[in-house]
Design brief:
Number of helices: 3
Strand content: 5-15%
Number of strands: 3
Strand order of the largest sheet: 1-3-2
Distance between the termini: 54 Å
Low-confidence stretches: none
Structural class: alpha+beta
Length: 64
């Protein structure tokens, strides 16, 4: 029997998501408040997002 480790879910801070996408932390907070972006809280101040959820916010704009 092989023992394969469970894949750990990855999270990033709002600052990391903002740096990666070029959006502001405030934009992410608005999207979370609007229910457009799921967020995860650990404690009273720590807020994290799943990078895959952040990537789903970015929608390709079709060109002519």
């Amino acid at each position: 029997m092989t023992n394969t480790p469970k894949s750990r879910r990855q999270f990033e801070s709002l600052a990391d998501a903002a740096d990666r996408t070029g959006l502001s932390i405030r934009t992410f907070r608005r999207r979370i408040a609007a229910g457009e972006l799921p967020a995860y809280r650990s404690g009273t101040r720590v807020l994290r997002v799943d990078p895959a959820d952040v990537d789903r916010l970015m929608v390709l704009v079709p060109t002519a």
